[in-house]
Amino acid sequence: MAGQGLSLHVATLLTGLLECLGFAGVLFGWASLVFVFKTEHYFKELCEPNAGLLSNATEQADCKGQDERFSLIFTLASFMNNFMTFPTGYIFDRFKTTVARLIAIFFYTSATLIIAFTSVDSALLLFLAMPTLTVGGILFLITNLQIGNLFGKHRSTIITLYNGAFDSSSAVFLIIKLLYEQGISIRASFLFLSACSVWHVGRTFLLMPRGHIPYPLPPTYSYGLCSEFGTRKEEKKTAECENVELQSKEVFSPKEESQDPGQQHELRSFQSCVLSRRFIWHFIWLSVIQLWHYLFIGTLNSLLTNLAGGDRVQVSAYINAFAITQFFGVLCAPWNGLLMDYLKQKYQKKTGKTGTSASAAALCSAVPSLALTSLLCLGFALCASVPVLSLQYATFILQVVSRSFLYGGNAAFLTLAFPSEHFGKLFGLVMALSAIVSLLQFPIFTLIKGPLQNDPFYVNVTLVLATLLTFVHPILVYLECRAQKESPSSNL
């Protein structure tokens, strides 16, 4: 029976990884899909002849309006990617796994069918399809993250791996682009994605729980193929009822929770967490770095077209290179978690000597991760700002590593810096607020294409300076940690 259970767990893990890798975050391969849409002449009517351009770039003429339309679609879709984290998380918590996954399948299938049957004349349907596709993908990710609970001490590694697979799924649109260049229509590709819904439905009922996977995992817990009725059903209900309490205790050990009562009282107030300097600077840190990534992905096709002088062959090659680097996000993501876990254990071993609390030591382990993420983003921003086409290979590498570090570091910091009972609310809030900031990508793009006459220099300088501002966050956290070491009785 144990062998059967292990086989089921492994099957759930591998199929979940495949689901995240093939479906959850395809939006971020947008540059590859835009190339196909442009080849199909979507929104071509927005292009205007411009005799001032080079003769070999007449096909692109003045396509500012077309680029803005694609940028707006990505802006709305990426906004939904973050903003809907909070309501979709609520759906998962309230209605459990099966209902959440059926909603995800409905959204995802509807979106792929809309894209499949969209034509040049009905291209405006992309404004509906892409955000819907994003919401379905987010729900796939959320319902799969709980699979880490099946593997005990490897839980964090699996969760990080799934987040990396989410990033790497952007390569799906590269595959669609390559198939398109080999004669496979975009309709055929998206009809295939729609047909995969049969696999999603089968996995929902055979390899996923009806409710939530509890942590720690009870010895009698079963789900999917091994689920039973009668007394086992009652045990499952009990385990699910206790899930929230168990998860809230998972982040901190008993030693870490034994802080002085004053600190506990202060931190347990959700309002005090939101209004704290620590949360506000974390929001700024996340929003600025995320804005860079969204702006870069949303405008990449236009950027490469300008740098390549309208040479579609070069643009296609660089878009392929970008999509390929995105695929390696699944390999980059776990390193940030490993770094934080190593430093956390190292600092907590010294707590007895320094007199600091274990939770303060855990918070200190986040400082190198925060600083390294800001440094990677700065390098990515500087490379992206230099108008040299060949340098964009380095930009692609730094972008995927920085993005992989960003979201893992965001979740890890919130678990270390605030009470675990507020984690879900704080995570949803910071993602929703950062989504509002990400809407700036469209006016920024319009500014570059309009008043700045396609010269992003001043915008890039401003955003690089904003990136330097993100270093304030790890510095302030470091100062808090140092103050705690000097005066262990002080509150963090």
UniProtKB/TrEMBL annotation:
> Mind telling me which SUPFAM superfamilies this protein's record contains?
MFS general substrate transporter
InterPro entries in the cross-refs: MFS, MFS_trans_sf, SLC43A3
Molecular functions per Gene Ontology: transmembrane transporter activity
Any GO CC annotation of this UniProt entry: membrane
Question: Tell me, what's a Pfam family for it?
Answer: MFS_1
The name this protein carries in UniProt is Equilibrative nucleobase transporter 1 isoform X1
Q: Which organism is it from?
A: Castor canadensis
